Amino acid sequence: MELREQAFSPIPKRVMDGSEPGELTAAAVLSGAPVDLQARTARIYRPAKTATQSGDWHGHHWRMDWDILQKGHRWENPLMGWQSSADFLQGTHLNFKSKEDAIQFAQKQGYEYFVQEPNERRIVPKAYANNFMHSPKKLKKIPTK
Known about the structure:
The protein has 4 helices and 6 strands; from the N terminus they run αααβββββαβ. The chain is an alpha+beta fold and 145 residues long. The termini are far apart.
């Protein structure tokens, strides 16, 4: 049975029949990729640096990953007690040089996607001399005993 003949398909109809407006034809129509992969929503974002990094060397790429399947796809391994999963896209991500490249790839593949804009860093200027500036408030006495 073809995918078009099924009563329900999680893939949008415009992707399946190739009638999506625009010059890009979704690769999902021709690729033969599993329906589970085509129906997942992709998230496009720029990953944040870890707290221990001070530079911005690795902060210039954009990443695309897929949503996590909710019910029935996780279980506890009886031998070790670890969490197991049947989700083959759980640890998968793709890196892109720019946001536009990631969006174009998602559109070409026919994925539903959303873009999560990064939070910009606010750098507050600090100076050691500010610790010794005069303030008109009453002196604060800190008892030592």
